[in-house]
Sequence to fold (365 residues):
Amino acid sequence: MRGWFGRKSAPERQAFVPAWLQGEGEQGGFARGYQAQLDEVYRRNPVGLRAVRLVAGLAGGLPLVGDEKAVALVKADGLLERAAASLLLHGNAFARLVTDSHDRPAELHLMRPERVSVVSGADGWPAAYLYRGGGQVVRVAKEDALGRRQVAHLKALDPSDDQYGLGCLEAACPAASVHNRASRWNKALLDNAARPSGALVYEPGDGSSLGAEQFDRLQKELGEQFSGSANAGRPLLLDGGLKWQALGLSPADMDFVAVKEGAARDIALAFGVPPVLVGLPGDATYANAREAGRALYRQTILPMAEGMLRGLGAMLGDWLGPVGIAVDTDKISELAEDRAKLWESVGAAEFLSRDEKREQLGFEP
Fold:
């Protein structure tokens, strides 16, 4: 598929492409493949880096309630934080259960998702997982001889794939590419005195042209003595029919600032983070950081955490018996206002008995 910036609007007319977007990427396209997109969106882009760390860090710090042993296994070694990052970036997280000498759950290890392949059984459902690392391939059966699950495959929704989930990198990569290129363009301007360069025009009276030696000398002097931020404002001495013609950028070229801000908002949107929480001007509904924090929990972190805990709890239940692991939302300060409103509305409901009110609030009769 041709890159977006390489398309033509009509056979006889080339679509306008700002100068700061020309000559970049894979023939004008976007990065392809997990590692390339990871570099573009996460390692090289501050908005993507901040968005992923924000969501993953908050997910890893959620207060949990439920079976004591199961909660301890899930909270150990930052498992939830790393699993959340894998889901955001790759769309898949694979947690492998390791048992002790008494065949009891001892640890949960998170396998790098890009190294794992799903092996389907005769019925089409996953039967095992292949993990490639250190030049070796390890096969891990989904269940042991007693039918107990050994691997919990957590995946983000992908309606077009039965075995794997879909991460956010593919959706965020175009915006991250635009954002990164705008940053490089801005740096190039700063390196050249923070303004567009100009042109030396040679207009001798006899109509002659510069010789090769004169041209090379002028080019060398401009590069060494008059280019770069260290030489900003340095006067240029001209002789021999030379004059300086300043060149400017068109308004369309200079619009990269607004385009960069729009790209940053798209990156935050792909990861489910309100723009104001990553340092961007937010929408009117997110004008208050408290409202944005509450929306982040309600719309992104809690749904992701519930899915992860459901998958991990199902695997641990095969070994520990029925376990329930849930997020204790009463201990999340960002949701305190929602909780206060609930308590107020339930307390004011005169048609409910005391026990019914306690049940509505999650307490035993």
